[in-house]
Amino acid sequence: MIVIDKPAGVPVHPAGRYNYNSVVEIMKAERNYTFKPLPCNRLDRLTSGVMFIAKTGREADKLSEELRGRTVRKEYVARVKGRFPDGEGWDGDPMRGGVVKCEESILSISPILGLNRARASGKSAKTLFRRLAYYPHKTEGGTETGNVQSDANVAQPAPAIPGTEEEGYSIVHCLPLTGRTHQIRVHLQFLGHPITNDPIYSNRSVFGPSLARNDSSGDKDEEIIERLKRVGKTEVSDSVSYEQERRLANVVEQTQQMTVSDAARLDASVPSSTASQDDPHFKPLATGTLHAGSLGAPGEDPMYSQEQYGAFVKAHDEMVADYNKRKGEKMTGEKCPVCDTPLYSDPGPHELGIYLHALAYSDVAGTWSYRSPVPQWALPPDGMEGPTDIGSWEYRGDEYLDIGDEREQQKLSNQRGLKKNKE
Q: What is the annotated signal peptide range for this record (predicted)?
């Protein structure tokens, strides 16, 4: 068995436009294609963390059987919107919370798009969560903002500006007791605290302002599917570069009533948001748009009044914000000259992963355990105190399932299938 710490952005198997750049193909190439890697646990392309690669079919079957039998404990860490609820057993610690349970069943409503929803008609699922830290948003003046009220039973509603971290963010320890596709991501969305940069479940253009908080109905499924189909084709996810989006929004707001002297001070104090040509992700703006520093003061050109100059600066910042939103991965409308395959733009760095990390896997019996380092995004931000290490989940009796063994469920499903085939 080989245990790896999978980086975010790399799929396990060749899929879509990913072939060589997948875990399986990379490991084959490193061993001169004399080795057939057999993944035992599959992480999403955007998720990082502990992953098992079996060297033989026997070992792969053995671990897969343990996973199906739920004798393997899986621990994840996530970074979510807002202040995660205090939960049961909370001792009043403003940083660390108690246990929050989510037992919403999960249904795949579009396998092609990889979209799953909380739904009573879906497969049973259970996840336990515990807040490890809460970091309020710091304004430019250094003051902290965000909701610090506690509630031991109900998840707090999403703030008025979903998809950003204006309300602060929480680092959450996750213990999935079942292994449904996107289980942690769906349950966090249902609780009203989705992973902040999740391109699907934190996408307000797909799910609307509430981000499907406490929503397990199927009333809007078709509409949600149609919206999601456009992401990655004609538009990009709106879960992008939150700090940059916030900074640009502030700049645009400041320039609404800007004078020449104000613009000069702003130009000197605010770093340019446009990419430089030294940046490997640089993409030039379309011909005719305004670049930072290209606007002269009205005194240098008598054709422009102070109001016109302020309007031009505002237009420039709006176009820069739009550029940064559009520079994500989507179809360009062009095709490969060799194979005629539709071409996509290069993904931005913010699209290569999400704030979800497979932190640890261990055997219930305690015979083996593997743990990954805490990712950088889960560490305390500059100027704030918080945990720099995440210990093992503290078991207190909630970690048991009332929904049966996965193997028994699969056996019953197979029996129903055989009966249906005979009919």
A: none
